[in-house]
Amino acid sequence: MADGILQSFERAFKRVVDSGIIRTERGPLAKIEVYLAPYVSVIRGELNASEWTVLVALCSMLGFIVLIFPLYALTNSPPLAVVFSLLGAIFIGYVVVTIPTIMAFMKIERMERAMPLFLSHLTAVYSDRKNMRDALLSMMPMDYGQLSLELREAISNFEVSGNPKTSFRRLRETINCRSINRAFDLITKSIDSGIDVSESLSILTNNITSDLDAEMDKNSRISMSTWMILLSSSLFYPLFAGMGYNITLILEGLMGSPLYSAIDKQLLLFSLLVYMLLANALDSMFIGQVRYGSVKRGLIIVFPLMLLISTVVFTVSMKLAGIFVG
User: Fold this and answer.
1) 232 plus 208 within the same structural domain
2) Residue 208 sits in the same domain as residue 225
3) Do 139 and 119 contact (CB within 8 A), yes or no?
4) Quick one: 251 and 310 in the same domain?
5) Which residue, among 108, 119, 94, 80, has the nearest Cα to 271 in the 3D structure?
6) 37-47 pLDDT, tens per residue?
7) Which of 7, 49, 168, 289 has the fewest CB atoms below 10 angstroms from its CB?
């Protein structure tokens, strides 16, 4: 049954794409498509960059429609419901945009972690045979995870075309990883000119291993602090903010008179949510810089998770407090 539902959604999505109702040639969608293109190329999924962009637009529109009625029931304010629904739709679209990006990062990381084993095997065979083509062919039956899939295709293309620069271009350029690019630059140079690159490959293997060990050590030392930052922004603040907002409603119920006007309470709720959004964004940027060495990766990987947790916790805390308000 689940497969049938998924197939129905897939057919409906394909019809929307083929109809051209949502066009990605210009405007914000064109910029999204340009942004997604290199990541989609890395992951090699079923959807191309244009189809991913259409999916982003569709998810945002559906998100707005799904969110507006529950948010109106929660806030009892049409303007706030529209504003929060728009923000929610933007967030949903942002999450869909980050999916191929995260998948590409994960694939490249897995490939990089397989590089020391692959290079050590390649160097051993190459040092013995002094022929890079034969050394690469001997690597094809070996299993290096995601790296093997890319490697086998590149070697097969090289066997057909005889041109190492075009055959290994994906591993030298498209896969955006310095160690992978450097390794296959050396391999290409060896095939082209016959230069002995054994020593260079050995040095590169040691450098990659040292970098991976240093990264693991760093992550083990900072894991506790990053978890505390994540929890404080995505769990503790929204919990206390939601409960705190409802304290005013509880006091009003006990006193029998309003402490704040309806507009003041809406502004307070809006301020709490904006502060939560900014805190999540800033803390995710910090976590990204500390853990991954990239603010961008923090916004792509950490921010959606933090904001999702914050939204759920804030909503649940308000509902729980609302029980006491009646």
Assistant:
1) no
2) no
3) no
4) yes
5) 80
6) 999 999 888 88
7) 7
Spatial separation of the C-alpha atoms in residues 224 and 212, rounded to whole Å: 20
CB atoms within 10 A of CB 284: 26
Q: Mind spelling out the 3-state secondary structure of 91-138?
A: HHHHHHHHHHHHHHHHHHHHHHHHHHHHHHHHHHHHHHHCCHHHHHHH
- Domain span holding position 227: 221-326
Residue 225 domain-assigned?
yes
State which of 213, 235, 264 marks the end of a domain. 213
With pLDDT > 90 as the criterion, what percentage of the chain qualifies? Answer: 5
Q: Cα–Cα distance between 112 and 209 in angstroms, integer?
A: 10
Number of domains in the chain: 2
What average pLDDT score do residues 259-280 get? 78
User: Would you give the DSSP letter of residue 256?
Assistant: T
Does 307 share its domain with 291? yes
Q: How far is CA 285 from the centre of its chain?
A: 13
Q: Which two tokens stand for residue 157?
A: 């293309």
Distance separating alpha carbons of residues 276 and 281, to the nearest angstrom: 9
Q: Is 228 helix (H, G, I), strand (E, B) or coil?
A: helix
Q: Is residue 23 part of a domain?
A: no
What average pLDDT is seen over the chain? 82
Q: What is the DSSP letter of 20?
A: T
3-state SS, residue 46:
coil
Q: pTM score, two decimals?
A: 0.79
**How long is the chain?**
326
Predicted confidence band at 10 (pLDDT cuts at 50, 70, 90)?
A: low
Cβ(249)–Cβ(260) under 8 Å? no
Q: How far apart are CA 146 and CA 108, in angstroms?
A: 8
Average pLDDT of the residues in 19-26: 75
